[in-house]
Amino acid sequence: MDIIVIGSGGREHAIVKKLRENPEIGTIYALPGNAGMKEAECVPVGAKDIPAVVEFALSHEIGFAVVAPDDPLVLGMVDALEEKGVPCFGPAAAAAQIEGSKVFAKNLMKKYGIPTAEYEVFDSVEKARDYCRGAKLPIVVKADGLALGKGVLICQTHEEADAALSEIMEEKLFGESGSRVVIEEFLEGPEVSVLSFTDGKIVVPMISSMDHKRAGDGDTGLNTGGMGTVAPNPYYTPEVAERCMKEIFLPTIAAMNAEGRTFKGCLYFGLMITKDGPKVIEYNCRFGDPETQVVLPLLDTDLFTIMKAVREGTLSSLDIRWKDASACCVILASNGYPKKYETGFPITLPENPKHGAEIFVAGAKSKDGVLVTGGGRVLGVTAVAPTLKEAVKNAYEAAEDVKFENAYMRHDIGARALACKGE
Ligand code: AMP
Ligand code: GLY
Fold first, then answer.
1. Residue 284: CB within 6 Å of ligand 2?
2. Which of ligand 2's atoms lies nearest the C-alpha of 286?
3. What domains are defined for the chain?
4. Does the beta carbon of 187 lie inside 6 Å of ligand 1?
5. Residue nearest to atom 19 of ligand 1 (CA)
6. Residue range 291-309, pLDDT digits in tens
7. Which atom of ligand 1 is closest in space to residue 102's alpha carbon?
8. Tally of CB atoms within 10 A around 190
9. From edge to edge, which strands make up the β-sheet containing 265-274?
10. What's the whole-model pTM score?
């Protein structure tokens, strides 16, 4: 069977590589993919171009589609493909609203008693300003809709909150997604990402992970899409996991069903482990990037089998297994990211990366047959090892053999996790 994977980043490369392990699958088409995805046939069809994707799927007799990024999910890509008889992994648009609208997600959590930060919603900038003036600092201002992961501003002063509201609601820095804002209480504690498979009946958490969102070492500098990840996350203890299942995961699935928005696909729980217990910072309706680059290499069960079971509602019939190991992914970015950066530099990749590491390519293109940098986050290097300490060391050693001009990486991916383990 030929399948398509929609999207073009390191996450999609990790999904493609894992799916490649299944011998039932013939060609994997990546729409649009990137020049570094050697395991797929890349087709220049935009990930948000619903009619073109549907047309491609029908004309190529595609047997299954994996819709990975948030925008096509929120826009209804799964609905459109399923309507034409193409089975998909990913939630329908109605369920993808859990990420598509922060107002929807917050109201859902309030209605169903799911722990999250206290909040208020505003569509008037004056009222939002009044509220912020009387609020405790720091205060968190979030644009309602999708904003490429950049619509969250943590404000230390009332002046910063004023400026954040002007940028989001008046200057429309994140477009129409800033017509409404959520203003919420600042929470403290370690963050944990838990991706999960759900067929709307049961929820199977994947191995937990930790993202490193800031650009600089020691969690300094600007927020990015993620500069590296480790898995499992040592803050996600068995006790925390048990509370999350009872207080967050199962109630969320039940809430979505009760709202007539059954979620099938990968539901990502962005959690903060506060002194009052685990709370939801955000939901994503998809695999995380670069969480996927550490989670999928630890998966011991066939991914395609799981994806089909998710769609068919038979997830409970599977025994999903994980390697008893740790993984670390170090992102190599273009110097300057997440602000301005240059691209077009040739990339040299080792033929056999050290320690069996995997390289997941994200921002790259082909120029005269040569792989060159083409984005902010260029690629990720993932190593799997029996301990986290070895995984971190191996990922950095393997990353040394990847070369391109202007490469930038953080040097402390995994340091916080190791400190938590006392290593
Ligand atoms: P999000 O895009 O919702 O994941 O937010 C980006 C980052 O902002 C999160 O990973 C947190 O580090 C931080 N953040 C979001 N909401 C809060 C909050 N209520 N309190 C503290 N930090 C937050
Ligand atoms: N790494 C965070 C995300 O995928 O949203």
1. yes
2. 4
3. 3-90 (3.40.50.20), 124-179 (3.30.1490.20), 191-317 (3.30.470.20), 326-420 (3.90.600.10)
4. yes
5. 186
6. 999 999 999 999 999 999 9
7. 3
8. 17
9. 203-205, 191-198, 265-274, 277-284
10. 0.96
